[in-house]
Amino acid sequence: SLPLQHIILKRGMYQTARPGPQRAMKASLLLAAVAWLSFFEPSFSFGVIKVPRNSVPPTNAFKGFLAHYSPPRRAMLGIRMDEERGRDAAREVQQAVLRSFSPDSVNRVKDVAETAAIAKRVEALAEAGDYQEAAMFLFDPSKGLSLPGTEQVRLWRLLPEVQKQMKAAFHAKADGESAPSPAAFSMAAVMTSVAEHLGLSGEHDEGISLLETAAAVLNSTRGDGGVGDESSGLRSDGLRRVAQCRAAIGDYDGAREVQMQSILLREDEHGEASAEVCHDVLVMAGIARQCGQVDEAFLLCLRALKIAKSLCPEAGVEGQDEGRRLLCDVKAETARVQQDKGLLQASLEGTQQVLRMAPEVHGEDHPSTAAAMDAVGVVLQRLGRYSEARELHERSLEIKKLSLGEAHVEVAHTMSHLGVCANSGDADYAKGREWHEKALDILQAELPPLHPSIGSTLLQLSDCEKTAGEPMVAQELSEQASHIFRCSLGDKHPLLAGALNNLAQAHRAQGRYDQALLLMQQSVGIKEEAMSPNHPSLATGLSNLAAIWEQGYKDLEKALDLRERALEMTRESLGDSHPQVATHMNNLAVTHTKRGDYEAAMRLYQEGLAIDEKVYGHQHPQVATDLNNLATFHFHVGQWQLSRQLYERALSIRTAVLGEDHVKTCATQRNLNLVLQSLELDEEEGGGGEEQPLPR
Fold this sequence. Notes:
- The chain is mainly alpha-helical.
- The chain has 31 helices and no strands.
- It has helices at about 5-15, 30-40, 70-75, 85-100, 110-125, 130-140, 150-155, 160-175, 180-200, 205-220, 225-250, 250-270, 275-290, 295-310, 320-340, 345-360, 365-380, 385-405, 410-425, 430-445, 450-465, 470-490, 495-510, 515-530, 535-550, 555-575, 580-595, 600-615, 620-635, 640-660, 665-685.
- Helix 21 (about 450-465) packs parallel to helix 23.
């Protein structure tokens, strides 16, 4: 595959992009139902509806689809049909498909009896040997595709003859047919969808195998005019979906390779400044961000932004709905990358821009507008502005409940955000636990039992219990999350590494250092294999490993080496002014203090404080934590007056931001009281509170 720099540098960033050809609405992802009809009824020739990829699983991926399009845009989504077949029949099929994707429709079948009836119908057709009819029924958007993913997989396995036909069709295309029918691509899309369900349901190897089969046929087919050119868009969409699925199950290298092929194909077909290329570049940016390549992700976002601005000249220009929507997507991804880079103010401004655009582009009560609110809220949490974040998440929750239903996966995600606000912002652990448990209930009802989203929510609940001082409960939740990630994503996925990290921390909190050390080493080993050499998460793992050596085994030299490596890695990957650099400086300062190197410790504490004040401002909880740590250091080296001043500053910040009853505010108050008592005793003994020289 070509290096990523070819795409970033040569394909549009530093060269003048050639204008892409103007064209009508073209194929993006052929709907499964339409695909099967065209496969079994060759006289039909259907148009294509573009289905945007989002964070929810395939069973919920089509929710609210039509709200992404203006009425004129919807009119372009007509179904083309041979005239002799009659336009009435085409219109009937079109209306059925549009109804199934309308904002008012329910993605999953809510009625248990209806779910059972659909499954029974597919089973009966399969038992009677009518596999083609069963397949058409199963992949109809209003029928089988409304079923939960686990049920789709079960019914898919009842259709061995259809699977054989699909594989035979794939082999026929691979043997040299140059103009593949749309059905070949649609079957690849069907297999990709099933593969993702399999992977996220615990059948990791089988899911990967199906993805490889789908990618092979997509790569083997080439258009050379006519139908081939029409199908090239389908091929690109298939490659994009394969890339996204690979990224979802942790195969980042495979995802990047496949997505590069899709980008190059789009550039050759549509030109370097087309909306199709912009979408694909954004997908590549997301993959790069997930695997820790934030600088590459940022460059890709800049390229996508250049394309989007060229497609969206000025606000208010008629006919630019798609351009503005694309600009929203680009700004949202750019803000996520900026957040990962530690550019929190820039990220906040970017998410706020998206939120201002969202009501006009999507509508006031659209799920995408709610998602924009959540994005702003997440950055506000990072900035310590929890009350503002909570307000936005609550508004988002109302919109999602009204537009998606009370028990939608996206509703659960917003509940998780509210749980973080309650846990971290208010120290209301009971409320945080309640939000996370509500989210978990929805996810367990809506998703396969081994879906990674369930594991991630279990980890958030584990964090809540750990903060509340319940390490045994945190351990149990982390074990459940580890099991889910191991089954659904395999033994080498970063999410599994994160769960093992939490599990190690729970064992460390209970004094079981041998178990903690083994688990943390496993976590770091996975990260070393799955991530880039200087990935920030890997640096965090090394720092946590150092804490075990330091606390459990009193091996300060090993801890010092690990913490220095973690600091250097973070500087190389994120720069010298990132908040995570400040965190590693504080951790390293603790080790230096225990070794008696007070001068190095004080320097690191002060440098970390300066970074956090620059990033967060002077009234942020993290700045208060830095002041608290620095005050504790000065107290232990005998500089009590300076310690008092620093504790008072920390107390002022925590009282103003977190409230006087917050657990961290109370902890700082206790520390300050201890210093004041020491000063009073010193005065009674005639010392006058005079500061002692800094020991070396």
